[in-house]
Amino acid sequence: MRHLPHTLVRVLDDGGDARGEWDPRLDDTVVLAALEAMVRTRVFDERMFRAHRQGKTSFYMKSTGEEAIAVGLSLASGKSDMCFPTYRMLGWLMARGYPLTDLVNQIYSNAADPLKGRQLPILYSARDFGFYSLSGNLGSRIGHAVGWAMASAYRGETSLALGIVGDGTTAEGAFHEAMTFAAVYHAPAILCVTNNQWAISSFAGIAGGEETTFAAKALAYGIPGLRVDGNDLLAIWGAARWAATRARANLGATLIEFVTYRAEGHSTSDDPTQYRPHDEAKAWPLGDPVERLKTYLMRRQAWSEDRHQELIERLGHEVKQAMKAGEAVGSLGASKPPVSEMFEGVFSTADWRLIEQRAELGI
Amino acid sequence: MPSMTMIQALNSALANKLEQDPDVLMFGQDIGYFGGVFRVTDGLQERFGLQRCFDAPIAEGGIIAAAIGMGAFGLRPVPEIQFADYILPAFDQLVSEAARLRYRSGGEFSAPITVRSPYGGGIFGGQTHSQSPEAIFAHITGLKTVIPSTPYDAKGLLVSAIEDDDPVIFLEPKRLYNGPFNGRPDQKVASWHGHPAAEVPDGLYRLPLGKAATIRSGEAVTILAYGTMVHVALSAIEECGIDAELLDLRSIVPLDIEAIEASVKKTGRCIIFHEASRFGGFGGELSALVQERCFYHLEAPVERVCGWDTPYPHAFEWDYFPGPARLIKAMSRVMEAR
Prior knowledge:
The structure holds two protein chains of two kinds. Chain A is an alpha/beta fold. Chain A has helices spanning 28-53, 67-76, 90-95, 100-108, 142-155, 173-184, 217-221, 233-248, 280-283, 289-299, 305-329, 352-360, and strands spanning 82-84, 161-166, 189-195, 198-199, 202-203, 225-229, 254-259. Chain A has two domains: 4-332, Rossmann fold (3-Layer(aba) Sandwich), CATH 3.40.50; 337-363, no CATH class. In chain A, the strands form two sheets. Chain A has a five-stranded parallel beta sheet with strand order 1-2-3-7-6, with helices on both faces. The termini of chain A are far apart. The model of chain A has no long low-confidence stretch (mean pLDDT 97). Chain B folds into two domains: 6-198, 3-Layer(aba) Sandwich (Rossmann fold), CATH 3.40.50.970; 213-336, Rossmann fold (3-Layer(aba) Sandwich), CATH 3.40.50. Chain B has a five-stranded mixed beta sheet with strand order 7-9-8-11-12, sandwiched between helices.
């Protein structure tokens, strides 16, 4: 098993066929559902990025190129499993049918925002969909995933935790502490590094990616490490299933590095041409995950170019409807939750300071 | 009723909660097999098992992160940080995660954890085993900070902290673990035995968070204190004979503003007495609140008697420690003011 972090687990070959022992052998209907969730993610990202450019919100981040990871993990995981995501895991929610309108309302911080106007756009929280509260701090929740997994084991429940960080965040102490805890307590957790090659403007080498693989960090902690093609939905699924089977059999945690590529800028506040070749994305290491899955399904006669175009159109319409519904409530600034929400939820019950301050504001 | 030290009272609170609530568990450095460097968890692993009380790696951030994940899941973890001086590696977890989780998730997740940690000086611990970091936690909205001063309070407050739905920093004044301390290091070390507040019931009881205790009623000046300084203040009051009113705040968040206001309005004078260094300390907040709310009742400037703005020095422990002599001087100044 010690060689695994230094290889690359792949199922889809360059021609689009599934090969090898990691093939999860999924029904075409299941793969089609994954493709749909990936395309929905991409279409949504494009529309919302444009909405930002139109001044409808303050911030947005796309997950272009990383859709297969989020969708694959989401669909391969159980309903009671909890994902401790990065901000490029929107596909997890898309694969589980999270209402698009709620996403739009959160991004617009409007009166219908499920997070009550308190959180930056896209830092979602969706407990019922197995999606832990996101935040802007990096790496500070991967240890929560380990704690969650320990709690689940303590209670004798079967819920697994998936803790996700990016390649850059593996440099944080929090990552290494979580690895130690996961190893020491045999936590039923799947810890993942989405290595998209870029941490804003720093290439993965700044986080140590040139010295060894991120998956190989697992070896020092005595847990298995897998290095997986992160643009290959089937490989992601196979790896996730393998790690989950180990965790449920009480064999403890697994570290999975997903090798992928951030095809777009870091966020709406970023211009990647300032620090990487402007045509780098065209080379797209390991290829576009959507195109690869599409080719696979087409080679199996389960999909066609026409049906793919129809899907994009249908999803575009869905997203448009959701945006309309969100904009009917209001885009950023045109609508917001009651200001009293600013004072709620700081504590389980507001103390005198908050009561007085709220009165001072006259609400 | 049994007489307990603060250590025994804390142990009793933890044992009661372990017995009563299967969701309570605890972990920290050396707290399992060994029972903690101060013995607060002595015997708990043996009695309740490895799953309920266990040793943790030396990674404070990892300890608090794991506790938050457990709390979000639905457990009631009670992690220990061996010395409050070593809580800073976990500061990001406390500030960016525990304190904010309920707020930012719209109430979907919360972190009902109680972080126990011995704090404070007077034990020749030097600058790495003596600090009083309460003010930096009080500044973080979303955290509660509780500091007991007696065995009876320690148990009742710890039970309430564990049952509280918000993250609580529970600071245990280590100089009071084995006996009250009047701030006079030249005198014989006192034990809790025979002290009225060392009478601690074996069973479960609770003291509300955010309720100050009036340790001594008086008319001349209000002294606001918590932790070790409560006992030092009482000794100073006895020595100088000034009819001071002494409030033990017991928790600084939530803060019993009503009790503070009522007392200062009655006496017209106020001294804030804490061991932490002065500048930016919690005394500054208390002083501002008293000034804002009691200005027209004040007969003298609000004074702060605190540790100096230096690191906690080893050889100069008793020059740094705000002992009874400094408080008595401040009381005299305040009483002379017109």
